[in-house]
Structure formats: structure tokens, C-alpha cells
Amino acid sequence: MFLTLVVSGGVSSRDQNWLSRLKEWVGHGKRILVAAGDGVRHNAPYHATNNFGPTRKEAAMSSFPTQQVRVHIRWMIRRDMEEVLSIEQHSFEFPWFEEDFIRCLRQRNCIGMVAEHGERVVGFMIYELHKTRLHILNFAVAPEFRRRDVGRQMVDKLVSKLSSQRRTRITLEVRETNLPAQLFFKQLGFRATMVLRSFYEDSPEDAYMMQFRHVPAALPELPAANRIDRLAG
Ligand SMILES: CC(C)(COP(=O)(O)OP(=O)(O)OC[C@H]1O[C@@H](n2cnc3c(N)ncnc32)[C@H](O)[C@@H]1OP(=O)(O)O)[C@@H](O)C(=O)NCCC(=O)NCCS
């Protein structure tokens, strides 16, 4: 059985490293093929829809790092829906529709946030609050704003909500073919923890569960209080 990875913008040596790690996780005799072309695949809500790559032009644009932008991250409101839907449609082959967003955001534990640059919504994320973790259901950046640090700022926002006492992890499922997203989350400290076989209803592909773990800030070292402490190093 083959596992096909579709990569936009070529595979760098850093990506090769990641691919070797991927091969180790997947194991099970699968061979990994790396193909050039449209890259992005997405986690589906409740095993539902959503799967798309950017157009070749967008993929080419997104593979050239440009100037970083600062974004303001705030709660999503009804008025944002048009821009959010546009980003969604330009990001996934099987995008969520407005009803999917509304159904999801009606749940008490479901949160929507947008990243705003000037007057424009340039990214969004939908996530669920669980007792000990945050679970990302949908996450995308407008194609022309990719590789400009927007995604990183959105993840930072989520990470800032973790604590040792309460929610200690962020989890998500990513399609096995969505190498750009895997590389993105890996770069931000997420690690693949599980392969979810035939996870999606719209395609036979598997998903990787990825997880970020909160690392408590190290306590400052106190000066040794007495002679015994000093001897103990
Ligand atoms: C994945 C996605 C959200 C990343 O957002 P982004 O704003 O472009 O990411 P950032 O600019 O913050 O990237 C931070 C780092 O992640 C890594 N990264 C991001 N995109 C990458 C890509 N396509 N290939 C390799 N590494 C990538 C890089 O190390 C990058 O830092 P650098 O640009 O300084 O090299 C965006 O590509 C996207 O919306 N994709 C389509 C939707 C999608 O797949 N969502 C995820 C569903 S699970």
C-alpha cells in the first residue's frame, strides 16, 4: 500500500527529515510517495467533509516567504462569516458551508476566533474546549497571507490558554496528504501521536492525530539555603 504526500513548492532537507520521521510512525509496510502539486488537505468536522489544496498559483505564492504581518486575534462574530467562508473555500477541497460553521459554533464548548489585519479577516480557527485539552476543528489562513506568521500567531493564542492546572494539551487531526499543515504544526511544537485509519468519510485517507503539550515555565533556581543544600548541589 502506498501513502502519497503531495507537496507544494518542493521538498527541502528539513522536509526530508520530517518525511523520515513520518515513515517511522507510519511503518506498517506503507511506502511514501512524494508528489509535487497542490498540497493542502484538512481535518474534517465530525468525520465530515473538507478537503482541498490551493491553486498552483496560490501554492507558489505561499511557498515564498514574504513580510510578516501582525494580526489582532478576536472572537468570531456573525459579520465575519463572509470572509471566513471565502478563506475556507480557498483552503479546502471539501470546505465547510455556513451551516457547518453555525452548527458547530452553536455548541457550548465550541469557539470561533479570527485573525484580523487592518479591517480584513486573514485567518480563522474553530476549536472545542474539553476538560483537559483544546481540540482544533478547523484552521486556515487566506492564501495570500500564508508564510507571513499569521498561523503562528493564532497557535500562540491557543497555547497562551493552556496551563498546568487545567487544559494542558492542544490536539487536532490532520490529513495524511496535508504535508504543509503537518510541517506547520510540527514547526510550532506539535507532535504526531497516532494514526487514525480511514478517518474521513470523503476519502479513504488516514489522519494523523497531532498534539501540543503545555510545558510549565521553569521555576527560577533558589540560592542554596544552608550548608546541606549547598552540599547537595
Ligand atoms: C497550515 C497553515 C494554517 C499555515 O499558516 P501560515 O500562516 O502560512 O503559517 P506561518 O506563516 O505562521 O508559518 C509558521 C512556520 O510553519 C512552517 N510552515 C508553514 N507553512 C508551511 C508549508 N507550506 N511548508 C513547510 N513549512 C511550513 C514554517 O516553518 C513557517 O515558518 P517560516 O515561514 O518562517 O519558514 C496555512 O498554510 C493554511 O491555511 N493551509 C490551508 C488550510 C489547512 O491545511 N489548515 C490546517 C488543517 S489541519
Report on the architecture of this protein.
This protein has 233 residues and is an alpha+beta fold. The protein has a single domain (2-216), classed as 3-Layer(aba) Sandwich (Aminopeptidase), CATH 3.40.630. The chain has 7 helices and 9 strands. Residues 1-17 and 22-64 have low confidence and may be disordered. It binds coenzyme A (COA). Residues 40, 42-43, 62, 65, 91, 139-141, 146-152, 172, 174, 178, 180-181, 183-184, 187 line the site of coenzyme A (COA).
Annotation keywords:
9 strands, Aminopeptidase, binds coenzyme A, alpha+beta, disordered N terminus, 233 residues
Largest sheet: 7 strands, mixed
Q: Strand share of the residues?
A: 25-35%
Number of strands: 9
Task: Label the overall shape.
Answer: globular
Number of domains: 1
**Which spans have pLDDT < 50 for at least 5 consecutive residues?**
1-17, 22-64
Q: Write the H/E string, N to C.
A: EHEHEHHEEEHEHEEH
CATH superfamily: Gcn5-related N-acetyltransferase (GNAT)
Radius of gyration: 20 Å
Strand order of the largest sheet: 3-4-5-6-7-9-8
